[in-house]
Write a structure and sequence with these properties.
about 190 residues; alpha/beta; Cytidine Deaminase, domain 2; 5-stranded mixed sheet; 5 strands; binds zinc ion
Length: about 190
């Protein structure tokens, strides 16, 4: 997808050197990115962590620069990864990078990705799907009701690209994640 001209007066228009062109990502690269995140997620679950994980792809959309699993309920995979990325790389570089998450980033994570100046977010499963798996009153995740795109919609400063949910990859993420959530959700209402 060709980048649209920046909004006049926006950060992207005023400071173009911080917004280098992002290389369009292909479906095969998206699928590979999600699979890389799933590898991290599977391993995290074996350590007793919740099934959330993210990876940072470099400007070539293929090189995995950093990975992160969920640590706990306030140290999520995506925001932890975004903070780590910002300590490693420059804004110019991160604008060309992609954060791929198995699940839709929450408000905290979306905002941290925004502040880290990572130019693209990709996620497989949606928050609505997550709620299906966790159910209500799950002490491991009181799933919120909102969407990543809503947080970034109409932002006048910069246009973080959001790709997701992904139908095929989302199904796989749901199936794999349910192995964990089925053991923690309240069985019946
Ligand atoms: Zn989060």
């Amino acid at each position: 997808m060709a980048a649209a001209a920046p909004t006049p007066g926006s950060a992207a228009a005023l400071l173009p050197h911080l917004f280098p062109e992002r290389k369009p990502i292909t479906p095969a690269q998206i699928a590979a990115g999600v699979e890389a995140a799933l590898v991290v997620q599977r391993r995290a679950v074996t350590f007793g962590k919740r099934p959330f994980a993210a990876v940072l792809l470099g400007p070539d959309n293929e090189t995995v620069l950093l990975t992160h699993q969920s640590i706990d309920q306030v140290n999520h995979a995506e925001s932890s990864l975004a903070r780590l990325a910002y300590t490693h790389y420059t804004k110019e570089f991160l604008w060309q990078c992609t954060l791929v998450s198995t699940w839709e980033p929450c408000g905290m994570c979306t905002a941290t990705i925004y502040w880290a100046h990572i130019g693209r977010i990709i996620f497989a499963g949606t928050n609505d799907q997550l709620y299906e798996l966790t159910g209500p009153g799950n002490k491991e995740n009181f799933t919120m009701d909102w969407h990543t795109k809503d947080f970034l919609k109409g932002c006048p400063q910069k246009d973080v690209e959001v790709i997701g949910p992904l139908e095929a990859e989302g199904k796989i993420v749901m199936e794999e994640s349910d192995k964990y959530w089925s053991t923690t959700r309240i069985a019946s209402l």
